[in-house]
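User: Predict the complex with iron/sulfur cluster.
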Amino acid sequence: MSKHQYAMVMDLNKCIGCQTCAVGCKKQWTHRDGAGYMYWNNVETHPGKGYPRNWHSIGGGFDSRRNLRPSPLPPKEDYGEAYEYDYRQRLFGGKNKPVMPHKKPTYGANWEEDVGGMNAGNPYFFYLPRICNHCTHPACVEACPRKAIYKREEDGIVVIDQERCNGYRYCIKSCPYKKIYFNEVAGKSEKCIFCYPRLEKGNVNACAAQCPGRIRFVGLLDDAESPISKLVNDWQVALGLFPEKGTHPNVYYVPPFNPPKDGQAGRSLLDDPRLPLDYLIYLFGKKVVAAIEFLHRELRRTQQGEKSEVLQLLIGRSDQVRYRIVPDALRMDAPEDVRRQLDAHTTGPALTIMGTPSTIGHLPSGQESRSCGNTATGGCRSCNLASQRLVT
Ligand code: SF4
Ligand code: SF4
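Assistant: Here is the predicted structure with iron/sulfur cluster placed in the model:
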């Protein structure tokens, strides 16, 4: 059990599907060999098959007796390829043909962009951004026979020790959210690291920092002052995805307000919600009904001139409102040896981690290795980037 738990809330009412988060994450963490097809942060249109295709219906997680129930390994085609585009002919060849991928795409991240429910009389869709949920009971950790995956003691972030990973991929089969990816070049599994090198420096996750919709809130679940605690614990308007999978996800979603359908002459059909409630229950469980009702009540109050604290918070005007990053507090709770290493990084010269085992993404006390994961081509990119202070 971790002493604290970093978590993220995403307000689905504000996501515009611009994919800036996906690009920000890719540029920071997966812009390298073997990771071309990976989106540690992806944004998919719902209803839809998602990325990888059908991830939400193929299995993973735990059954009611807490036994792992692994899915088949998703085939490569279900992720889509990292397509190369022939910009050269367009920019320098004078051919003026459209820019095309190197082969005909058959699937990819957000393949169903804006298609959604395909209901001619009542068109509807919404975007669902996804990262690893840094679960409280991570199926990936339980599935790994090498104990290469672990939850960081002081903040609950789930990472893979690349030195221990043998590329068996049991973790991929067991994760119900399919948020672990296999790097064929490195022969290892990789995943979202919740931008811990940024958090340790007091900076928010790259996906959140880049989000023009300001949909993301970040903080500790157990910090009463954090926006996360207010939205998840106090107001209970943010819910985990597929709670029945048994991993207790720590990425939470404020569900779409679910406006009424439009009837004849554009008149609103007040008691007939546009998004089928069953679909929202499918994604977030039955608690979604109470969350939506509460949000509607708060909305009505503001329409009558009253103030709503929860809606004010969800507007999220400033970084100070949306994020509460507390590196110093967490450092105090890190294992003694790790704390010494972190202190050395803070007080010493710029980090020089490249090519050496990371001292940031540590293992729990007592284990020998000190690798954070991500030792793919060129050393640990996560820590390289942290060492270059590419944190904004
Ligand atoms: S979402 Fe999947 S990869 Fe992430 S911690 Fe949970 S089980 Fe592990
Ligand atoms: S950057 Fe923000 S608004 Fe854009 S797709 Fe990502 S989560 Fe949605």
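The CA atoms of residues 163 and 371 lie 7 Å apart.
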